[in-house]
Amino acid sequence: MRLAVVGGKLQGVEACYLALKAGWHTRLVDRHPDALARGLCDEFVLSDLAREQDMRRVFGGVDLVLPALEDQGALEALCRFCAVAGLPLAFDPQAYRVSSSKIASDKLFADRGIAAPKPWPEAGFPLIAKPSNGSGSRGIRILRSMEQLCAAFPDEEASAGWVLQEYLHGPSYSLEVAAAGGRIRCFQVTDLFMDEAYDCKRVTAPTELPAGLVAEFERIGRTIAEAVGLRGLMDVEVILDGGRLNVLEIDARLPSQTPTAVFWSSGVNLVQILGEAACGAELPPPPASSACRAVVYEHIRVSPGLLQTGGEHMMAGSGVLRLHSDFYGADEALSDYAPARDDWRATLIVAGGSRREAWHKRCEVMADIRRTFALGRFLESEPTDPL
User: Fold this and answer.
1) Whether residues 324 and 257 fall in one domain
2) Which of 3, 76, 206, 330 has the most CB atoms within 10 Å of its CB?
3) Cα 375 to Cα 367: distance, rounded to the nearest angstrom
4) What is the value of pTM for the model shown?
């Protein structure tokens, strides 16, 4: 399979990494010469796809196009070009339109009776404010009082395009759902851990969520997939509060972070499944949970005297990422590390036979990095509880 990945940021890193694991030939397309994913592809094409003739040149000889960006104009242009060219596109524009708007997706949850955080003014303080068209933790604000709310949003115009909801406190989980050929498949649930900016800094699998709640999560995922008429892949994120799963957001696209954790734990390659489904293949059944191994997927930054963990926004500031095996005890790492650098970042992938074994191994990796680079301080970024 010759795959064109459009976009070399964090989603592009995910796509290129998993395409590499599938044994596919990858052509990365980005308008920045130092795109994060450039070190993980077979070919790199510098282009912003501004004109149709550019697209014909860029996509010549490929079998499949996978968008790994959130630029609406670029996505619409890709959809038009691939439809005319008869080129399979691993993307569902209809589902994406709903999932890329928190206002639209929250309405869908309410219409379908799916539990989600209460909206303002039904909810009390603290509140969480999110840009409707953002993804992940970008732009999130915590508002603890009416004074903070009025200062942030003094009038209707200022609050346009924002979603204000109750702040829920509890563990977060993610689930990938795929739909093709009239079938819906739910894959492995992963556990999410946040940094101080509520950005995901670590993903672990298999989940510690009880089996009954896993089944409920899968039911929620299927309900949402049916509601948006999903044809492709969707990520669903929930938070467990008071014994109930509340949906925080959905993303009908290839997400970052969780697919690699799913691959290392279950062996399921979601890029391969998404790409083959776009080319007409049937969805495979999920593997037996008994076959899964434990994995810790985590972001770190090394700077003079300091090792710190942080969300994926920290990785967005790195240089070109390359794949390293047996990286200070980690099974693999995606990093801009070089011997001459004293400031570098890495996504560490650590696997073990059990959760305890994987976590112990992860701690040994951190200790080895600290010893090797004489890092006296270790900062574990954690969210501040506003309650």
Assistant:
1) no
2) 330
3) 9
4) 0.94
Residue 160: which domain range? 118-166
Radius of gyration of the chain (CA): 21
Tokens of residue 165, six digits: 């909801």
- What is the Cα–Cα distance from 207 to 320, expressed in whole angstroms? 31
Q: Report the distance separating Cα 182 and Cα 316, nearest Å.
A: 36
Domain stop point among 291, 318, 346: 291
Q: Is 329 left (phi over 0), alpha (psi -120 to 50) or beta?
A: left
Token couple for 335: 């990093």
C-alpha distance from residue 120 to each of 117, 134, 159, 165, 373 (Å): 10, 19, 12, 6, 48
Q: Indicate whether 311 and 340 sit together in one domain.
A: yes
Q: In the structure encoding, which two tokens stand for residue 224, read together?
A: 């949402």
Residue range 78-125, pLDDT digits in tens: 999 999 999 999 999 999 999 998 889 999 999 999 999 998 888 888
Instruction: Say which DSSP state 340 is in.
Output: T
Q: Helix, strand or coil for residue 256? A: coil
Q: Which residues pair with 5 in a beta bridge?
A: 28, 66
Is the same domain home to 127 and 186?
A: no
Q: Which residue has the tokens 């739909």?
A: 179
Q: Give the containing element (helix H, strand E) for 244.
A: strand 244-251
